[in-house]
Predict the 3D structure of the following.
Amino acid sequence: MLRQTEGSQAVARTVAMCRPEVICAYPISPQTHIVETLSDLVRTGELAPCEFISVESEFAAMSVAIGASATGARAYTATASQGLLYMAEALFNAAGLGLPIVMTVANRAIGAPINIWNDHSDTMSQRDSGWIQLYAETNQEALDLHPQAFKLAEALSLPVMVCMDGFILTHAYERVDLPDQDQIDAFLPPYEPRQVLDPAEPVTIGAMVGPEAFSEVKYLAHAKQIQALDLIPEIAAEFAGMFGRDSGGLLRAYRADDAETIVVALGSVLGTIEDTVDELRDQGVKIGALAIKSFRPFPLEEVRAALAHAERVVVLEKALAVGIGGIVSANVRMALSGIQLHGYTVIAGLGGRPITTASLHTLFKEAIADELQPLTFLDMNWEIVQRELDRQRVDHRPGPHAENILRDIGIVAARSH
Amino acid sequence: MFQVRIHGRGGQGVVTAAEMLSVAAFIEGRHAQAFPSFGSERTGAPVVAFCRIDDKEIRAREPISEPDAVIVQDPTLLHQVNLFDGLGPDAYILINTERTFQELGMGDFVKQFRPERLLTVPATELAREHLGRPIPNAVLLGGFAALSGLVSIDSVAQAIREKFSGRLADGNVAAAEAAFEFVRAEMQEVTHA
Amino acid sequence: MPYQQIKFYQAGSFVVGNRLLDPEERSVQAKMDRSNSLTSGHRACQGCGEALGARYALDAAMRATDNKVIAANATGCLEVFSTPFPESSWQLPWIHSLFGNAPAVSTGIAAALKVKGRTDIRVVGQGGDGGTVDIGFACLSGMFERNDDVLFICYDNEAYMNTGVQRSGATPPAARTATTKPVGKEPGNVFGQGKSAPLIAMAHEIPYVATATVSDLRDLEYKVERAMELRGARYLHIFVPCPLGWGSASNDTIRIARLVKETGLFPVFEAEHGEVVGVSKIRRQVPVEEYLRPQRRYAHLFKDPPRTDVIAHIQKRADRNIRRFGLLPDENDSADLPGHATDAAGGPGSPPHPDETSAAAILAESHEGAT
């Protein structure tokens, strides 16, 4: 059913239809509306049977999910940024124990400096936790990915995180097609756990594994994610068959077949990128885009196949690996190993800085002219940066960068918008 | 695509206004996107919200820098925040005020725009009258419907009723309709002038 | 249900008396069909107090629940020595997740059972003092605060033993650990630190808080059974000597546990909703020195010259506990309270003074006197 609604609400309602049995969540911007809605649905009885637990921290949230999932309940939680980091230990634990927990991450930057706005640094920091990572471009895809995520998680016995851009998607009102309960029930059967805590058949879960077996256990986790490379498109196809629209999958190409330049990105920025691609195509430029939807497992072969024919690839990413540069681009580079083409990494949108068609237009033109540096930062205020770097050379004042910069600028006036 | 930017202060329902506008467009079968500027929201701080309306799927996600219309919920923002950034000569401006543009100190400013597209409406007063509270957001949407014709007053009323219920909905709808009439009358005056 | 003590004067222990009890009142361990939840083959040290306590506690829980218990274990000695992959000593459903989250994992298990309509299955969370009092504390408090239906058991051997005997928030003053060596001015762990998890549990006003030692195993079993009669958050804090970490003889474990109670250093009591409802009286009070001597972690107090000042300080702590909890038998004792130990003369134990029952009163007293 078509509705005009907030992204968070759409996700929450769809998650509710997936019949989670235990929801345990700790509030953090910008995920709050998701858990608030789910809490309401549990209270009114619309979502039942379901236990909603207000936990004392995100570490507790993931831990409660671990306990619940191991006992055979379908478990769900949501978080962002600092909260994701706070549960980092538990993330690795859940993946290592093979528990099919599904979690929504409302992508948000990580401090210091504290920042509540969108970028991908949070989920990127946990890319090696063993969780499957799926990135949504739109609110429609964000809600569609949740039933797919539960199905995928339970088929493989691996946890899955659905990543949606904080504020940009979570707090945006847009038109979505909400599924109904019957459709979801037909698509997603009840959870049948493989190994469960049950007095009728006692098992020991979480034993200490020494050097003689650890490597094999770890490899098996990797092997399961590789299996996901087949299962993700299968589930997406099944979804498309049942719901009549494409959502999810490993990646999606846009006007890339004959493109000489292909822009690669994850998440909602692809909308703006496609608008810019269309503008340039109107001017005769052979440019296209590639949306990566499954970041873990990383679809090496599929990315290679999509990009191999291009002359240049621009990876636009919303996270920075401090000390080296791009994260997504490093993975893309791996996919392209052995292939000669121009590769550009553009770091953009950190801490919620808007990515505009105007800036992208200029950027893509520079890329096409091969005038870009291998690593670029979109819309960076180099003046401020340079001033601070110059001052650091002279005056070794310790302290946080943000506050040091403020000394120059003085009081930061409220921007007009 | 039509792009609207709404300015106000925290607590005045700026974000809800953008959402309701998007719902009104949805009711008319169009695509719409509404989102706030995500500043540090606190009561009284300047807040901006955006609404895009189109007949096809909207992909852009950036803040609206070149709006086709600006709605100003709080005139005290006028000389504090750059409310009119990016406006072209055919833009619509609707300001919540009892005063005239001259009295607001915008006499010269308005000369660059089309007079029938720059209007004021005493939305806060109308809200007090019909709603009992000085919340102008839904009211202004009624005025905006008249000003731009982007959405009908009926769609605005329906959007209000989806968000609010009972007397709150009734009051808001009544105020919005009053604003609609007010602006329509104003427009007729201006075109005849 | 209260248990009946059989006095066995010559041995000075109640253990042998099992055969003199009616079968229903005997220890779970006396039964051939006991669940052996923690069965033999684990890798615990000789004389490990934790292995002893865990075996008794879990078998008691199993009997009380018709063998329907799921256990969540924190990282630590118990977890490590009981599950050397590919072997496991556990004969009940058991999960180990992380060091700091056993209470939260327990909450999750309880929630899943509730959703599935299987509240007949009960949840026991367990860990050592480090995992409970330090790194797991936030999760523990959260579980208490929500009154989740979990019995959490802390096996307190007063340091991080599994990692090599480092100081924890439960390490008592003057004790030697790898990080509180008796070098420099301070003889071991400093005075003025540490926290009482049982008192903090009481402050949450949860349905049941109790302490026990491995010297009185029937008392320990009773407390687990009592806990399983109740629903909601319950906490059991068990004193378990660690021969390796404490430098005590492996056959001294039970004796040392008895001494800690008889000195008054470790009050053995029960509390419900934040008020003490029963106290295990000291049979024959002993000076703390008798408890400290058999443990090399206190050896530095007995050099030449001995640290009588420190020992006196420790004695003061024991005296304060005796006063706060009413640990010494009174002459004018009234009827038994549930779970009440009787004293050597056979009279009933004394009920605690009314103004000593509440956690607040006890905590208020903590500011009196030196630490």
In short: Residues 277 and 283 of chain A are 10 Å apart (CA to CA). Residues 214-243 of chain A form the longest helix (30 residues). The interface with chain C takes residues 21-22, 24, 49-51, 53-57, 59-60, 63-73, 75, 89-90, 93, 97, 197-199, 201-210, 213 of chain A (CB under 8 Å).
